[in-house]
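Lay summary. Proteins are chains of building blocks that fold into shapes, and those shapes determine what they do. In this project we predict the shape from the chain. Here is one chain we studied, written as its sequence of building blocks.
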Amino acid sequence: MEGIKLSFPPETPPLSVIAALSLSSSPVTIDSSSAATTVPTFVFSDGRKLSGTSVLLRYVGRSAKSLPGFYGHDAFESSQIDEWVDYACVFSSGSEFENACTRVDKYLQSGTFLVGHSLSIADVAVWSALAGMYPSSCYESC
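And here is the predicted shape, written in a compact code that computers can read:
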């Protein structure tokens, strides 16, 4: 992941992406000087870009070589992770927050992690949502 810059507005840092980058020891330059209307974006050294919190989170998960299983060990687990990353947006909907917490609580009664037997970006996305830092514009950037 060399030569990547994470750009985002200082008012809305993509906590899930920053946490995933830290956990995976990914070398990324951080630029928190973007305009407030900008969605989080990876800018690659060759000029290519990826935008949106869940897109960036999935990219980190797929490319994290230091954390096997961070994006699942097989296609089924990767799909389960996708479900949870998409579901994390529900936490930003005030009316659905309590139901979302109940669902996660019941699900975790039978295990420590949301998918498989190790930390994944699903856990990071839900943790970030519970911390209140998943973007309120999540539905647009997911």
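What the prediction tells us: The helical segments are 15-23, 53-63, 75-87, 97-107, 121-130, 138-141.
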